[in-house]
Amino acid sequence: MGINNKVSTGLKGFDQAIDMLRLGDNVVWQVDAVSDYRKIVEPYVTQARLDQRKLVYVRFGSHAPLLEDSPEIKVYHLDAKKGFESFATEVHSLVEQEGHKAFYVFDCLSDLLEYWYSDLMISNFFKVSCPFLHELDTIAYFAIKRNVHTYSTIACIRETTQLLLDLYQVKNKFYIHPLKVWKRYSPTMFFPHLIQGRKAVCITASSEAAELFSSINRGEERLDYWDVVFNQAKSALTLGPEEQEKAKRLLMTLLIGSESRMFELCDRYFTLKDILNIAAREVGSGFIGGKSVGMLLARKILEQEGHDRFIPYLEPHDSYYLGSDVFYTYLVQNGCWKLRTKQKTKEGYFKYAPELKQKILNGKFSEPIREKFMRMLEYFGQSPIIVRSSSLLEDNFGNTFAGKYESVFCVNQGTPEERFAAFEQAIRTVYASTMNEDALAYRMNRGLFDKDEQMAILVQRVSGDYHKEKFFPHLAGVGNSSNLYVWDKSVDMNAGMLRLVFGLGTRAVERTIDDYAKIVCLDNPLRTPPVNCEDKKKFSQHYVDVLSLKQNTLTSQSWEKIVNDDLKVDKNLFASWDHQTANRLRELGYTSNHLAYILDFSKLLKDTEFPGLMRDMLALLSEVYDYPVDIEFTANFTADNHFKVNLLQCRPLRTRGLGTAMQMPELVDEQDCFFSTRGNFMGGNVRLPVDFVVYVHAQAYAERNEQSKCAVARQIGLLNTALKGKNVMLVGPGRWGSTTPSLGVPVHFTELCNMSVICEVASCDAGFTPELSYGTHFFQNLVEAGIFYVAIFDGQEDVVFHPERILKRDNMLTAILPQCTQIADVIHVAQTDGLVLFSDIVRGQALTLLN
């Protein structure tokens, strides 16, 4: 397209945002009022006059004229009362008469409803007229009123027009939000733009965008009885408290579910208006699921019970919810229902899951649902979003499903079509994850295999901002109101803990390779785990998870590459200068400074209100839940060190009872002990007799190739099944459940879920190191399953480790699993009648004694 075909809107800044208009463009503005449309028409007409364009005004609406009479403007007065055909013919005739490169202003198309009473006819008119206008290289401005027309009308207009633009007036400020710009693209084109005179300021920060759009009323088209019920409930807002409560509880049964502990908490804190606001952001019908409910409830508790303590610090959210009925409809329409019925039997539970998963991944959504998806994506523009599972059973009392279902980031780069395709596939991926082996085993083990697992979806704007070609928040993490991982007897476990990372929170919820999140005890945030000075950098975060605009995906980048980017805040909040590394680099001749920063969050924890706020937040939520809680959050800072916290998730944290303090036996002779350690364990106060120890030899395991290491993991899974019902201690090198066999045994959680104790042993010779990753999904699974955890750092002070006390006993591996003769040098199974595990969380000691 040559430069002569480019045309100004009259707003120089907005021209830059959309790379100007092109001859042939039809431009449709969605507005709240015709007066708003008039304000955007004026600069366009003024510019056209300056450029000596042929101006044509097509007048048919009942609203006041958009343009003053002028000899420079040709006005056609059309009579829409004559009907669609006559009107469309007259328009075609005048366009033909005016010829090429005329500039048009049409009255608001919504006024045609007064005459035709048909959205379909408006879309038909648009469909026949716009291609002709495009063919003659004209530019034509149209307007439609927001929340007036059906989805199918908007879909037709979007498909046909070259530009579809939302025009908002909020607090006397005008914003333009491009929804479609044909054959033009830039990384910021589909963000909202604040119009200031002839300038257009692009809004990219998640907090600003959320605050803007959450204040805008975006109505929904409601057609079926579901919508009738909610519309009737709206009228109850004008009635007395009793009628409102009755209407509210009815709607809650439709959105949240049946009577339960969570239901009663929601009933206590949500008003009818709250429930109606939630419903207004639901796509489809049905339940919004446990994750959505937990997030909404936690925010409401903080707002209502916090007495203004938290409101100034909470980032607004503007999430959407895909109702569980959409999932059911998807299965039915894609021919999955019969297969699903077969899969839900005990015989077919695992057998048919892979086939069903593939069918789900390759299905199609109906056009009405796809249109609602499109509207949602238009709302978010190019802001990154995350598509998260929110099943009916998820994040509830007793069942967390931590990490069992997928969450998918949509970086939201590319054309609208590309972004839409990625979003649809993200939904399919979450739906298909209901057939993941781990999820199925979790449900089977918890007696839920025959329960309806209705998968709703939570769609959230990703919290953070752009930093060059990367998008991420400054902080993210998980928080627990009870700190069950105590390494020092002075730790107040009731103050809670955080597992904190810089960037996206994926590193906070997963066990990562050679990387460590920051564990923060909220009673004393500056207290550090027992790490030697020289290991301070080793046991810190080295990689940051970000969304890459260039790659359009979630990726990891080294902290060294990010530290010198413009973080829009003082980086010393998060990182401290590493004098040792700096001196060593200087000696080696390096001049770069950024390598010498350690992500230790020292200044953040010492000089800001952040740790105190998080402690109070966890305490309040736990108090109201009357139960320990687990949250996921992000935080973003401004240049003056003010911050906003985005509470993404809250769920009950199932904990193993702490029990009464143990009378710890005295260790008279170290040879009586299998292991003893100060700290580095989790599981409360216990006295546990151990029937079997399953021991994996570090050196023998390390010498195996990767395929053989994975085979060892599968045999552990068989032992997990064979020894079910016994008290079994599993001991192995490095990290249990690692996806990297060189770091530990790559078992799935379902392959160790029947164990009573798991031990991770450091082996310097073989290169294995435990990761004390309390707060991850893996550790949440341990807590929920009541599995005691301990890390053994052999050779450290206060650590006793005598594996020979176990290994001198007969190896019963082949007696239990006759097919495992080839790995008997790697796995040793010892019957250990008389072995007892003791732990005292106050003294911070774990000890195992043998008779």
TrEMBL record:
Classification via InterPro entries: ATP_grasp_subdomain_1, PPDK_AMP/ATP-bd
SUPFAM superfamilies: Glutathione synthetase ATP-binding domain-like (SSF56059)
Family annotation (Gene3D superfamilies): ATP-grasp fold, A domain
Mitochondrion listed as a keyword: no
GO molecular function, one term: ATP binding
Keywords: Kinase, Pyruvate, Transferase
Domain Pyruvate phosphate dikinase AMP/ATP-binding: 288-669
Keyword Cell wall biogenesis/degradation: no
Name of the molecule in the record: Phosphoenolpyruvate synthase/pyruvate phosphate dikinase
